């Protein structure tokens, strides 16, 4: 008997039921015991006379009338009876639970849990409470149509009764003492069967710590495993050439850029493959750091690639790198889906023989037909746009390839550790010298006319502008400005003097590229767009952005959009046009207008919206914790991370007596942390 036994060992769980339980993530007895309630019902008996109307309450009394059931409609019913409590009777009604009649006997005591209606002095019943209930707190679990609440309760009780004696102590005793945690056994017992709210709170505190701690332990193991399985492509770069390249740059690196560059160069020169995430606010100078890293790789005789999510961004990188490396022996090639068959045929042999040493591109870089001579570094730009498998495919194009993933989406460091747990995290938190923060203003829709007057003034001065809107076409259900209507409106206002362009997600890639290229070459003065421009090319001449219905975007998204302007040393402006209907909405507009610090905004976004909204769980890879929340439980997460790093820093940690059960438990439950 052990917790890893399949859930089918429990009575009442056949093959059919196990399939429905599997859908809830319950495959083993351990999965069932760590399937936590999401709330509790307080079933302690109360006096109706001291109960507020609408409050959920348990009332105990004697069944004073014969219960009656009336059926009406399809599968609808109403069960009624009078309950006598301390000499006073209260009508009780249960809807659609006709079977409860068998559990009610005239002149017998019963406890009813339900909502009390003080005006009518009656109870809308939810459930009958059995006399033998050991706790006054009833655990309520996430349930489905296939797996009912009572089924989960019964199975949890059965599993605990049968396996209580074999529940191991998985946390080291030193951690239990240090942080006043409960044992694994007591945590499970008090989470499922608490005798008081205090018991439940203490158990959940331990459960949260365990969840973060086990996750962090698994991440540390993955890091070690990755290092053991791969011999790094060690980059023995030419320090003199690298210094010469840095001196040729038309600007000095900020202290933050220099610190991050040093971290990367140290990784490249180490015997372990680099797996580093570089976070930098919009316009903070990540590309320069990437260029230095790529040049260092080339000076060691190896190749480097930089992979971008769009062809137009890849083209921009190729152009920028060509300018940077114009005085050095670097051969750059651009490989995207748009590369002609003829150009591709000529390019591939030179990539394979190493003559081309920097390759810029999109997904085309890791296709089967592309063979590298000696790939030392893969830089992945806007890495959240690529899936885990795509990043891995790029890594596998070389032997022990070093990976530098870059993102302009600022994420608080601790959350970044959970999102990209097996990566080292570097942060550029300074803007380049001479770069002015974008001046941001929030106005109501009634003042749009003044915003347009300001926009025209900037256009007359030869500048360009983005106009952003949340929707592509008009929706009757949602009262928001839309790209097509705004485009037509702006054409009417500004053409023929200033040409207006349109860019949205439903356009083909060729259409998007054409629109963006035309804007970059100043064929359009105004570009009306949806959020498709969030990650795009630099148009240094664009210094104004108008965002309609700005309250429909998150803080981080607004900051990303705003980052499209202010790409030169000239002052840039962003006007938020919004009439938020909630206090939260107004607060968000004030925060983004006040601050240009992306990391501060991302932290505020987390506090106001939650991690799922800011990172977009589907693409971010944020672990889906059962009870812990990386935002609300930040302190617990920090401590769990630190302890996991401390324990795994010792090579023989698994052999220590207090860690034996921990190592065994982690091995037994690998699926929890790697799926």
What's this entry about, in short?
The chain has 675 residues and is α/β, with parallel strands linked by helices. It contains 24 helices and 21 strands. It folds into four domains: 7-39 and 137-209, no CATH class; 44-129, OB fold (Dihydrolipoamide Acetyltransferase, E2P) (Beta Barrel), CATH 2.40.50.140; 239-428, P-loop containing nucleotide triphosphate hydrolases (Rossmann fold, 3-Layer(aba) Sandwich); 439-596, 3-Layer(aba) Sandwich (Rossmann fold), CATH 3.40.50.
Main sheet properties: 7 strands, parallel
What is the percent of helical residues? Answer: 25-40%
Distinct helical segment count: 24
Number of structural domains: 4
| Extended strand count | 21
Low-confidence stretches: 611-622
The top-level CATH class of the largest domain is Alpha Beta
Radius of gyration (CA) equals 31 Å
According to CATH, the homologous superfamily of the largest domain is P-loop containing nucleotide triphosphate hydrolases
Structural class: alpha/beta
CATH level 3 topology of the largest domain: Rossmann fold
Given the C-alpha coordinates, what overall shape results? globular
- Which architecture of the largest domain per CATH? 3-Layer(aba) Sandwich
Strand order of the largest sheet: 11-12-10-13-14-9-15
Query: What share of the residues does DSSP label as strand, in percent?
Result: 15-25%
How would you explain this protein's 3D organization?
The structure is a single chain. The chain folds into 4 domains: 106 residues, no CATH class; 86 residues, OB fold (Dihydrolipoamide Acetyltransferase, E2P) (Beta Barrel), CATH 2.40.50.140; 190 residues, P-loop containing nucleotide triphosphate hydrolases (Rossmann fold, 3-Layer(aba) Sandwich); 158 residues, P-loop containing nucleotide triphosphate hydrolases (Rossmann fold, 3-Layer(aba) Sandwich). The chain has 24 helices and 21 strands. A 7-stranded parallel beta sheet has the order 11-12-10-13-14-9-15, sandwiched between helices. The protein has 675 residues and is an alpha/beta fold. The longest helix is centred in the N-terminal third of the chain and has 33 residues. Its EC number is 5.6.2.4. One of its GO terms (molecular function) is ATP binding. This is ATP-dependent DNA helicase RecG.
């Amino acid at each position: 008997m052990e917790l890893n036994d399949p859930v089918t060992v429990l009575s009442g769980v056949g093959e059919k039921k196990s399939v429905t339980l599997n859908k809830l993530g319950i495959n083993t007895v351990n999965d069932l015991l760590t399937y936590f309630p999401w709330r509790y019902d307080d079933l302690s008996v109360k006096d109706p006379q001291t109960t507020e109307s609408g409050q959920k309450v348990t009332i105990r009394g004697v069944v004073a009338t014969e219960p009656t059931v009336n059926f009406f409609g399809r599968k609808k019913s109403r069960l009624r009876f009078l309950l006598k409590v301390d000499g006073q009777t209260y009508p009780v009604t249960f809807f659609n639970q006709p079977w409860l009649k068998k559990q009610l006997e005239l002149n017998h005591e019963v406890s009813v849990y339900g909502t009390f209606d003080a005006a009518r002095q009656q109870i809308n019943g939810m459930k009958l409470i059995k006399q033998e209930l050991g706790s006054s707190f009833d655990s309520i679990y996430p349930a489905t149509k296939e797996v009912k609440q009572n089924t989960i309760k019964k199975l949890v009780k059965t599993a605990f009764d049968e396996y209580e004696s074999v529940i191991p102590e998985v946390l080291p005793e030193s951690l239990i003492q240090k942080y006043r945690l409960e044992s694994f056994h007591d945590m499970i017992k008090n989470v499922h069967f608490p005798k008081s709210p205090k018991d439940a709170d203490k158990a959940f505190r331990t459960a949260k710590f365990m969840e973060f701690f086990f996750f962090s332990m698994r991440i540390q193991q993955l890091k070690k495993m990755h290092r053991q399985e791969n011999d790094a492509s060690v980059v023995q770069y030419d320090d003199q050439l690298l210094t010469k390249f840095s001196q040729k740059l038309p600007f000095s690196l900020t202290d933050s850029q220099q610190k991050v560059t040093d971290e990367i160069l140290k990784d490249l020169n180490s015997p372990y493959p680099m797996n580093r995430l570089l976070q930098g606010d919009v316009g903070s100078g990540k590309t320069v750091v990437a260029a230095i890293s790529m040049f260092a790789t080339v000076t060691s005789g190896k190749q480097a690639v930089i992979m971008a999510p769009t062809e137009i961004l890849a083209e921009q990188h190729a152009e920028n790198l060509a300018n940077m490396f114009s005085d050095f022996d670097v051969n750059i090639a651009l490989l995207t889906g748009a590369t002609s068959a003829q150009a591709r045929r000529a390019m591939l042999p030179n990539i394979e023989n190493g003559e081309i040493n920097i390759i810029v591109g999109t997904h085309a870089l890791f296709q089967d037909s592309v063979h590298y001579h000696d790939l030392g570094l893969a830089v992945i730009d806007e890495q959240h746009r690529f899936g885990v498998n795509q990043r891995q495919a790029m890594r596998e194009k070389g032997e022990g390839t070093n990976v530098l993933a870059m993102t302009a989406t600022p994420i608080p460091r601790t959350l970044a550790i959970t999102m990209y747990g097996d990566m080292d995290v570097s942060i550029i938190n300074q803007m380049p010298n001479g770069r002015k923060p974008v001046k941001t203003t929030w106005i109501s829709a009634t003042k749009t006319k003044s915003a347009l007057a300001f926009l025209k003034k900037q256009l007359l001065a030869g500048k360009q502008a983005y106009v952003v809107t949340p929707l592509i076409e008009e929706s009757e259900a949602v009262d928001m400005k839309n790209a097509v209507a705004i485009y037509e409106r702006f054409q009417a206002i500004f053409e023929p003097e200033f040409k207006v362009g349109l860019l949205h997600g439903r356009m083909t890639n060729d259409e998007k590229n054409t629109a963006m290229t035309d804007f970059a070459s100043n064929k359009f003065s105004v570009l009306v767009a949806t959020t498709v421009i969030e990650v795009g090319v630099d148009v240094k001449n664009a210094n104004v952005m108008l965002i309609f219905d700005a309250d429909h975007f998150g803080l981080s998204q607004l900051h990303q959009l705003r980052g499209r302007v202010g790409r030169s040393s000239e002052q840039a402006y962003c006007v938020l046009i919004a009439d938020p209907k909630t206090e939260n909405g107004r607060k968000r507009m004030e925060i983004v207008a006040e601050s240009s610090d992306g990391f501060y905004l991302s932290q505020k976004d987390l506090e106001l919206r939650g991690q799922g909204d800011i990172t977009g769980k589907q693409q971010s890879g944020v672990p889906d914790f059962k009870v812990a929340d990386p935002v609300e439980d930040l302190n617990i997460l920090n401590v769990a991370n630190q302890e996991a790093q401390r324990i795994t820093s010792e090579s023989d940690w698994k052999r220590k007596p207090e860690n034996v059960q921990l190592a065994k438990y982690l091995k037994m439950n690998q699926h929890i942390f790697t799926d």
